[in-house]
Design brief:
The chain has 170 residues and is mainly beta. Helices cover 14% and strands 51% of the residues. The strands form 2 sheets. Strands 2, 3, 4, 5 and 6 form a 5-stranded antiparallel sheet that branches. Strand 4 (80-102) and strand 5 form a beta hairpin.
Length: 170
């Protein structure tokens, strides 16, 4: 078992660009599609939002004290290994905000205008990586059986969001 982990770390399975790293990136991006993101925002007006989505910017795998990618073994079987990695993912979150003001006559809310705001957020996730193949050979011979991104973004902080009035000279 220790020889497999040594090979994974020392032979740089998680360094440079390779098919496994590319597949991890794709799975992180895919996980954003199902994200249910709660918005935290303040405004001087009544505020609603919809059409919330996150776009991938980057990710960084967690490192151990030696600077190598931190790898935890979950399970080892003959020709199969399940690894747990951690990653910090950076995303851009966009949401369409709608502003309303209270009508002094009928006391109802009148929708004034809406526009899209964006913010950058980071979140941490664990990644379960199931690999199969002959681990005594080159990494190109190792196949990815499954990648599971355990957590995804669940909230975004926009701080103060205010209605932008058009310039009357535009």
């Amino acid at each position: 078992m220790s020889s497999i982990i040594y090979k994974i770390r020392e032979d740089s399975l998680f360094a440079d660009k390779n098919h496994i790293l590319e597949q991890i990136k794709v799975k992180i991006i895919d996980s954003l599609d199902s994200a249910d993101i709660y918005i935290e925002a303040n405004s001087s007006m009544f505020l609603e939002w919809d059409d919330v989505f996150a776009s991938y910017i980057s990710h960084k795998l967690d490192n151990d004290i030696n600077g190598s990618v931190s790898v935890n073994v979950v399970r080892i079987d003959d020709g199969l290994i399940v690894l747990k990695l951690g990653a910090t993912v950076k995303v851009e979150v966009a949401a369409r905000f709608y502003f309303s003001s209270k009508d002094p006559v009928d006391r109802g809310y009148v929708r004034l205008r809406g526009y899209v705001c964006k913010t950058t957020e980071s979140f941490h996730t664990d990644i379960l990586l199931t690999l199969s193949g002959d681990f005594s050979k080159d990494f190109e011979e190792i196949e990815v059986d499954e990648i599971e991104v355990v957590e995804t973004i669940n909230e975004a902080h926009f701080l103060e969001v205010e209605l932008e009035w058009p310039d009357e000279y535009d």
